[in-house]
Amino acid sequence: MVIVATRVFVVGATGYIGKFVVRELVRRGYEVVSFAREKSGVGGASSMEETRRQLEGSVVRFGDVGDMRSLREKGIRGERFDVVVSCLTSRNGGVKDSWAVDYEATKHAMVAGQEAGATRFLLLSAICVQKPMLEFQRAKLQFEKELRESGMTWIIVRPTAFFKSIAGQVEAIKSGKPYVMFGDGELTACKPISERDLASYMVDSLEDEGRHNRILPIGGPGPAITAKEQGTMMFELLGREPKFKRMPIQMFDVIIPVLSALAKLFPKLEDKAEFARIGKYYCSESMLVWDAEKGEYNADMTPEYGTDTLREFYRHVLEHGLEGQELGEHAMF
Question: What is the pLDDT of residues 94-129, one digit of tens each?
Fold first, then answer.
């Protein structure tokens, strides 16, 4: 039952999570306008017709969220909205792209929404911003700060890992290759959440006033799982003995300084250095709530939601492939 204002403007609607958020809003009876690029999806492979099919039930409008004029004229169109939902995220985590999307474009959506009368803003962020070391994290945090100061009612959802983000080795393992992990495979852990469960949680949060003006970390059904346990699970589902390849995380301590130094001479290498920093971060930092008092990640402090399990997800993709789970430029993560 919809108990809040019902006219919703969604940006980032064609992203991995955005599509499911739009469908959940439509399912619950909201009047949804989805704003998308003419060529969207991984590598811009989706046509306008395909985008309309994916976002069926919503009104789909096309334009550029990075361009305020386009957003106002092609998206908002002088109409009134009650809620803005942003599922925007940078395409690859590069320095300029992070600030262009995670900060500037998302801020455009907030400003345009305020002009259209919207009083609520639901933001899809990321749990990793709690310990910022990367440019996209700093860009997200800057927008979060401005959103909290905007005067709007805000809901910031910070999910842990998505199922797709820990599925990158599925095809390799199916073909007989070992599972690649850093160190002993127990350096990090997460409580991954499915796109369907996350979308449901986000819309629940829009409707639950107790979650308004709050930062909401969220994971899927526990317990927390390490990289080694993820690999073991896939081999078990295939009926094979686990086979691992261990990589030294110290390799990043060589790669990062070299690329950073070269980037000062050759600016085009700036993103390469950032991608190496991203790689190290995801191989060394858990996607769980950070306990600042103890200086450690805490699985028990990481809330759980939903019913979709990683085991069932792995079972499905091992049998049917990764269609619909394409990583695109996020494959490096």
Answer: 999 999 999 999 999 999 999 999 999 999 999 999
**Number of domains into which the chain is organized:** 1
Could you tell me if 92 and 271 are in contact, meaning their C-beta atoms sit under 8 angstroms apart? Answer: yes
Report the distance separating Cα 264 and Cα 315, nearest Å.
46
Cα gap 143→125, rounded to integer Å: 10
Is 303 strand, coil or helix?
coil
Phi, psi of 255 (to 5 degrees): -65, -45
Which helix (H) or strand (E) segment holds residue 156: the answer is strand 153-159
DSSP code for 50: H
Asked, for residue 49, whether it belongs to a domain, the answer is yes
Higher pLDDT, 170 or 4: 170
Our CA angle for 324, 326, 329, nearest 5°, is: 150
pLDDT in tens, 137-158: 999 999 999 999 999 999 999 9
What distance in Å separates the CA atoms of residue 333 and residue 330, rounded to the nearest whole number?
6
Sequence-ordered alpha helix ranges (H) in the chain: 18-27, 48-54, 68-70, 95-98, 106-115, 135-148, 170-174, 195-207, 227-238, 251-265, 270-284, 310-320
Per DSSP, 178 falls in state P
Contact 228, 166 (CB under 8 A): no
- Does residue 103 lie within any of the structural domains? yes
Q: The domain spanning residue 140 has which CATH number? A: 3.40.50.720
DSSP string, 78-98: T---SEEEE----SS--HHHH
Q: pTM for this one?
A: 0.92
Between CA 333 and CA 324 the distance in angstroms is 17
CB 187 within 8 A of CB 296: no
